[in-house]
# Entry
Amino acid sequence: MYINFWYPIVRSEDLGYDRPEKARVLGCDLVAFRDREGVAHVLSDTCTHRGASLGGAWSAGDAPRIVNGCLVCPYHGWEFGGDGECKNIPSIGYGNKVPARAKVDSYPVQEKYGIVFAFLGDEPEESRPPLLELEEYGQEGWVANEVLILEVPYYYERSIENGLDPAHNEFVHPTHGHSAINRDTYKVRDYETEDHRQGWGFWFMHLFDSPPLPQKGSATSPDAETPWGDSKTVRSDVYAGGGTYGPNIMPTYINLAEGKMFRQYFFEQPVDTGTTRIFFLNMRNFLLDPKHNGPIHARNKVIAQQDIDILSTMNPKRTPLSATKEVLTPSDTAIVAYRSWLEKFDDMGWRIDWKDFQARNGEEAAFAIPSPGRRTSGNWVLEEIPCIKSREDRKKIEKAA
Ligand code: FES
Ligand SMILES: [Fe+2]
# Structure
């Protein structure tokens, strides 16, 4: 898990105006709320007074949770603004000057694609990875299903690697492939990966043999622009592919037939090493009538469950650090490409030292993901989540474990 990327926190539709929503991301508790203008904010959830959860349970009946655009701690009523600063401490009298240390981390927020995203890290804006730009979102001729949330009992890297894997469809998704009937001819074609046009990841496209669908025409040439910019002409059944952007975003393109495309995005929220919440946005440029949303949702849920059933069995739960602990084949090319991007993020010093974090978190210490505010002011109450400096250090730490 890495700091310094954009993570989905909560669906826009789930963040009301009168109450906060909590989320645990990268092992840390966060709280989202809207100010008077409706602007969403995301803060570290641990109150710096004496440690209550800012978004936690509230026993005072209907007492307001958000006052004058500030989030109110349910324990002693300290009021925190969207900038993370405490504005009022009731016990010293409303309006009196509060100590400078009475602040919590506040993270940059963007509300896009029906999701509230937060940048979880302290990297300055100039060098920060941007949030992925979805070129087709909101464009004429495209519709999006409402964001579906899949809560799954496994590590997010396992989920991403599954989405990149062109060899599992035949076996996990009987609706996609020939299954056992093409045993004599089955083979995954070789494919290559390329850098993603927006940086921070990679892309590939692959030709799948697929049984005919009822609405499908004859042999097709995908007319989609691929993310690297050119347009490939292939006679095929289904031309599909995907890639990654940062550690936790996975786009998938599925070109079913001439002019019939799905573009799917997994925005993954790693809760901890055993739980992930996937914010799944599915777009299409055909079947535009909203009456198709329900059936498409239902089908996607069935497909997702097939993946969940397999991925819940993976051992170990995290991907091995050494290639000697698995036997990879050419069909795993995209998985190798993803891991080589993770190595780059390791070398940026952005990987959380999970072992150290786990050993102390919630027992002797409360941690926060560092926010950009830590670069410009000191005196923070919560300890920063520990990170590993480099790939080499990671090897040493995991070897020693
Ligand atoms: S713990 Fe939050 S106000 Fe006291
Ligand atoms: Fe799958």
User: Anything to note?
Assistant: The longest strand covers residues 260-272. The helical segments are 156-163, 169-172, 293-311, 333-347, 354-360, 391-400. The two ends are 17 Å apart (CA to CA). DSSP finds six helices and 23 strands in the chain.
